[in-house]
Amino acid sequence: MLEHLATPAVLELSEEERLPLWQALSDLAGKHRAFSNAEWALPLDDVERLEAAAARITPTSPNIVYRRLFNPHFDDALVRATDYEEALRDLTRQRQAAVSALFEKGD
């Protein structure tokens, strides 16, 4: 599957069409990286392969990339965080940076 994501059939999709793939890969890699000590977690090599595949299809439009930060389901990551307060501060920083970047771009 990861090899298929590097084919023209996927890479030539619009950013909107690649977005769900990118989000799913990023979320899966993030979950396994966050819980790397869990018995069910993927090995680090596999997590890195997921991250590399996600990087190849990352949207370039800030409007699309930052959208996930404001998705209510993205907040679910806070529930899984080992340090909720730090995760909330980090999410807030990411959201503030996204708003600033979009404002500067004029979007």
Based on Cα principal axes, name the global outline.
flat
Count every beta strand, where a strand is a DSSP E run of 2 or more residues.
0
The arrangement of helices and strands along the chain is HHHHHH
Can you tell me the number of structural domains? Answer: 2
Approximately what portion of the residues adopt beta-strand conformation? under 5%
Which blocks of ≥5 consecutive residues have pLDDT under 50?
Answer: none
Distance between the termini: 34 Å
| Estimated radius of gyration | 15 Å
Mean pLDDT: 87
How many strands, what sense, and barrel or not for the largest sheet? Answer: none
Structural class: mainly alpha
* Count of helical regions: 6
Helix content: 55-70%
Written description of the protein model:
The chain is an all-alpha fold and 107 residues long. It folds into two domains: 1-59; 61-107. 64% of the residues lie in helices and 0% in strands. It has six helices and no strands. The chain has helices at 8-11, 15-34, 44-56, 62-65, 76-80, 84-105. Helix 2 (15-34) packs antiparallel against helix 3 (44-56). The longest helix has 22 residues, at 84-105.
Features:
6 helices; 107 residues; flat; 2 domains; 0% strand; 64% helix
List the helices and strands and how they pair.
Elements: H1 8-11, H2 15-34, H3 44-56, H4 62-65, H5 76-80, H6 84-105
